[in-house]
Structure formats: C-alpha cells, structure tokens
Design goal:
This protein is of the alpha+beta class. The chain has one domain. Helices cover about 45% and strands about 20% of the residues. The chain has 6 helices and 3 strands, in the order ββαβααααα. Strands 2-1-3 form a 3-stranded antiparallel β-sheet. β1 and β2 form a beta hairpin. The longest helix is centred in the middle third of the chain and has 24 residues.
C-alpha cells in the first residue's frame, strides 16, 4: 500500500462561486469525477504514491515561487480560498505540471532540477546562468527551471507609496 497507484491531476474547480485551479492527488479516477467542486480535469496521470508526492511537492514549490515573484514585483494576484488563482493561465500550469512529471523519469536530472528549484525559492537563477557559474546539464536545466518562473500577468501592478517620514 506504501507505493499504491495514485492519480496526480490538474483540474479547474468552483467552490462558493469562486473559481480556482487545483493540483492534487486522488486514489482513483472516480474520486476526481465525483468531487463536486471540480469542473474539468486538464491533466491526469496514474503514478505511484511516492512519485505523486514528490512531483506534487515540486509543482507546488514551483507555483509558490512564481506567486512570490509576482508579489515581489507588486502584481495583484487574487488568492482563492482554496487552490490556485485563475489569474495564472492554464497553459502556464500545464507547462509546470508537464515539466515536473516528465523530468521525474530521469533521476539525475530530477535531483538537479529539484536543487535548482530550491535555490530559485531564494534567488533568481538568471545571474547564475549569465555568470557561467553553472556548466553542462546544470545550466541547461537552470534555464528551463527559470523559464517556468517567467509568467507576467497583464494585470496592473500595485504601486507602493512610502509613508512620509514625518507628519
């Protein structure tokens, strides 16, 4: 039962008239179909439980990195009560989902990419790529991981006004 098959999925949903994307794991195809909050399933892969957990971790970390990047650049992204905001386009989420699902098949590349993703949580990989600090496959994967973080919405940026130093 430890590594029983699970469905890793990407779906759209609505709860309390609020739309969202969700990436998750369910035990069966039927569990996805019968979830009253889910509308459409856009990606669904039957994989082992441990594999599903690993890939879900990478996808969620990638999405969190992306949200943090957008917030740091003062982009207004709505946070639904559950799931991922519809402000992130489906094709961006599909690219992230597909990349992590595919890269898991090559353990060496997976470990490199997970390491780069963890670094990306703290800093952009652009400087490492441009400074020639990374070589060979590490550089190739760094470029791809960085590309997964390049989405910029059309929504207006929030201009932060500094409070006056005195009143």
């Amino acid at each position: 039962m430890e590594n029983s098959p699970q469905y890793l999925f990407l779906a759209s949903g609505v709860k309390n008239e609020e739309g969202f994307w969700v990436v998750g794991v369910k035990n069966s195809d039927k569990d996805i179909e019968e979830d009253k909050n889910l509308l459409d399933c856009h990606r669904k892969e039957l994989i082992g439980n441990e594999t599903a957990k690993d890939i879900l971790y990478a996808i969620n970390l990638n999405i969190n990195n992306l949200f943090n990047e957008l917030r740091n650049k003062n982009h207004l992204i709505k946070r639904p009560s559950i799931g991922i905001s519809f402000d992130i386009p489906l094709d961006v989420l599909e690219s992230i989902f597909d990349f992590w699902l595919d890269i898991y098949k090559d353990q060496e590349a997976w470990e490199t990419c997970i390491g780069l993703l963890k670094i990306r949580k703290r800093i952009s990989l652009k400087n490492l790529i441009e400074s020639e600090s990374l070589k060979g496959n590490s550089k190739k994967w760094a470029i791809k991981v960085e590309t997964l973080h390049t989405y910029v919405p059309n929504s207006p940026r929030i201009e932060k006004l500094n409070d006056p130093m005195w009143k």
